[in-house]
Amino acid sequence: MRHFGHIPSATRAGLFHREPAVFTADSPARTLAVALGATLYSPATRPRLADDVRKQVARGVVSMVLCLEDSIGDADVEAGEDNLVRQFADLAAGTVTDADTATDTPADVPLLFIRVREPRQITDLVDRLGETVRLLSGFVLPKFTEARGHAFLEALTRAERTSGRRLFAMPVLESPELLHLETRAETLAGIASITDKYRDRVLALRLGVTDFCSAYGLRRSPDMTAYDVKIVSHVIADVVNVLGRSDGTGFTITGPVWEYFRLGERMFKPQLRRSPFLEGRAEDLRTALIEHDLDGLLREIELDRANGLLGKTCIHPTHVVPVHALSVVSHEEWSDAQDILRPERGGGGVLRSAYTNKMNEVKPHRAWAERTLLRAEVFGVAKEDVGFVDLLTAGLAG
After folding, report:
1. What is this structure's pTM?
2. Which CATH number does the domain 21-327 belong to among 3.20.20.60, 1.10.730.10, 3.40.50.970, 3.30.360.10?
3. pLDDT value, residue 95
């Protein structure tokens, strides 16, 4: 797998100063946590799920969650489990042979996770998947707290042991205890404790902003980001404060879902500036993004990163390319990060950036630089004259 691997190699060479690196489901957890990108959710009950997975890979998707929780009805859970077993067998049937190792590996399969409801489903599904468990990267754990999390993570540990397969957990932080002010600090401390205990198995933490809004009967419009809903933005800030630290105790925390993908009546002016789109046919792209309510998504992605989040939960394929395009490291960011991390800068100090438009402070900006270079490894570094409009256009064209 690689980001932007679905576009022609000649096009990719024209866009990137350093192309995105290839990674696999067996890559280090630190790499995979960043590489998740736009994680596309799909109901586990879809009858042609295997075909859907392959189709999305061809559109640039590298991580998917097959959902047995909120996306399906209570009466459909058993059917969803049965369907997953069948669809994994279908996916496993499409293999290619690695010429170097003479082993069969799955073709057109992204990082796959199953969102379960109960801990018992983890061990049960791993047993039922049999040898096709090799296609599975892990499980998404809903409404995660310290009390609920212990049983989920113990079940994951047992499933990993019996299957012989490395399996990751992606807890979803969405419980009312986390939202309510009087219980938030205690809940966050409990989550920090249990995720630290099982650190090797926790790939990333996901935010369930829809559930946060639900607790107060709220729903943000397509003209507003999660950060405009103050009760939500305060929770995000506290989660990052406790669980997203760059001192080695933190985790990758992914951005909340953007739930709009159809044209609706717009109350406010578009948030997408005209200036980046003024050349060639780019104005048409700007119009299309606005018509599909994706200008708000673009703004939220930028705010996600500014607030310490990386990647995003997605419920529609049209959201994937914008997330990935805005995850590419600009040549300016890469240049700054390289300068800050040069060995001779180990003693600290301040230097003018190569772009001569800012000051880089070596010690305060070091964690940012390290994070930027890790993102550059999996999403690539754009050429100096390449902007997100170019990346969007290429990604959408495939």
Report:
1. 0.89
2. 3.20.20.60
3. 56
